[in-house]
């Protein structure tokens, strides 16, 4: 059952298992579907405008991700796009209207204007950083266009897979912007080829799935949208079968290790596991492995 979330409160998602009843009939640009037990599909749902982001959509997206982060019935998440494209970036007509209003406000003193612009950028940054901060692994399932803000979004996810027809571009320099909501800050940690990332960021040129795969932006190419749907669900369901204590500890540690020294991150994981190894998940998994059975785990 497809659920349309009309600006639900964080706590309303966090405390309630996202079961099968629609919580609102009003139209929403982000939909959430429980795809399998513990597996949720968050869909960008503004197909007429190629899922381009407006401020409202960014806010709604963050609420949904923050809600799932706290929801014990969610163990893995797929982010995909409805319609022709995954995401053609920011809505060039509506997405910058708040910032342009501030810039053009002649009554506002320049230093205060700067502060307002900074706050605005920070708010949008937080919407995609929510993906990275969410303890549940997030798979970006990309088809067709993934431009500008679309790349900001996917680089904050854990795993990226795409259809053969996917088309990427770090498009910001073409609209007079240094990308500021995550791509430039994350892509080198994702891709690991500085020359290539500079080439595509500085030229805004399009590149396809084969090139994205060759340089490590995506880990898998599938033939079409049907396979994208199947493969992303399969992957998310496989993750959701594992101990949530182990999976979430793995995401936290990989993120920590990426941004810290090896010594610091070894210290992090031993401190993390001081408590997490005490979980029954360790014993359950070990017994199940010895008995060639599948373990099940309590919600966290
Ligand atoms: C502080 C803020 C920081 C955020 C920064 C973010 C930056 C970015 O995201 S940069 C990237 C911006 N995006 C673009 O430049 C893409 C612009 N769109 C296109 O080039 C083409 O639409 C595209 C090649 C993606 C697809 O072309 P196609 O012919 O297949 O479709 P269209 O007929 O052009 O589009 C269908 C309808 O969608 C509307 N639309 C597409 N992109 C945008 C957009 N970015 N903003 C607003 N609207 C967009 C397009 O107008 C069509 O609508 P309609 O005319 O009503 O049918």
TrEMBL record:
Gene3D superfamilies: 2-enoyl-CoA Hydratase, Chain A, domain 1, Lyase 2-enoyl-coa Hydratase, Chain A, domain 2. The keyword Isomerase applies. One of its GO terms (cellular component) is peroxisome. CDD domains: crotonase-like (cd06558). Keywords: Acetylation, Fatty acid metabolism, Isomerase, Lipid metabolism, Peroxisome. Its main location: other. Pfam families: ECH_1. It is found in: Peroxisome. Pathway: Lipid metabolism; fatty acid beta-oxidation. Transmembrane segments: none annotated. It catalyses: (3E,5Z)-octadienoyl-CoA = (2E,4E)-octadienoyl-CoA; (3E,5Z,8Z,11Z,14Z)-eicosapentaenoyl-CoA = (2E,4E,8Z,11Z,14Z)-eicosapentaenoyl-CoA. GO terms for biological process: fatty acid beta-oxidation. One of its GO terms (molecular function) is delta(3,5)-delta(2,4)-dienoyl-CoA isomerase activity. PANTHER family: DELTA(3,5)-DELTA(2,4)-DIENOYL-COA ISOMERASE, MITOCHONDRIAL (PTHR43149:SF2), ENOYL-COA HYDRATASE (PTHR43149). Isomerization of 3-trans,5-cis-dienoyl-CoA to 2-trans,4-trans-dienoyl-CoA. This is Delta(3,5)-Delta(2,4)-dienoyl-CoA isomerase, mitochondrial.
């Amino acid at each position: 059952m497809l659920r349309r979330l009309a600006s639900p409160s964080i706590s309303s998602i966090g405390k309630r298992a996202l079961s099968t009843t629609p919580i609102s009939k009003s139209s929403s640009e982000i939909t959430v579907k429980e795809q399998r037990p513990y597996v949720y599909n968050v869909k960008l749902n503004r197909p007429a405008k190629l899922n381009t982001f407006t401020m409202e959509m960014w806010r709604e997206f963050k609420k949904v991700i923050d809600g799932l982060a706290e929801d014990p019935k969610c163990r893995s998440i797929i982010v995909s796009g409805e319609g022709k494209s995954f995401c053609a970036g920011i809505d060039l007509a509506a997405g910058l209207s708040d910032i342009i209003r501030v810039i053009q406000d002649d009554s506002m003193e320049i230093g205060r204007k700067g502060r307002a612009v900074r706050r605005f950028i920070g708010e949008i940054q937080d919407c995609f950083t929510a993906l990275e901060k969410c303890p549940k692994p997030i798979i970006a399932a990309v088809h067709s266009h993934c431009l500008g803000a679309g790349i900001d979004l996917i680089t904050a996810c854990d795993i990226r897979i795409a259809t053969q027809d996917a088309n990427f571009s770090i498009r910001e320099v073409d609209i007079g912007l240094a990308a500021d909501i995550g791509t430039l800050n994350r892509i080198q940690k994702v891709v690991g080829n500085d020359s290539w990332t500079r080439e595509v960021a500085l030229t805004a040129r399009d590149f396809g799935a084969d090139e994205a795969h060759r340089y490590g932006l995506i880990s898998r190419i599938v033939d079409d949208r049907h396979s994208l749907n199947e493969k992303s669900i399969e992957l998310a369901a496989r993750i959701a079968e594992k101990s949530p204590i182990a999976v979430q500890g793995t995401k936290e540690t990989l993120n920590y290790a990426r941004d810290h020294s090896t010594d610091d991150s070894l210290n992090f994981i031993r401190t993390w596991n001081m408590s997490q190894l005490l979980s029954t998940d360790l014993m359950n998994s070990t017994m199940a492995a010895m008995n060639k059975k599948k373990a099940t785990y309590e919600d966290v």
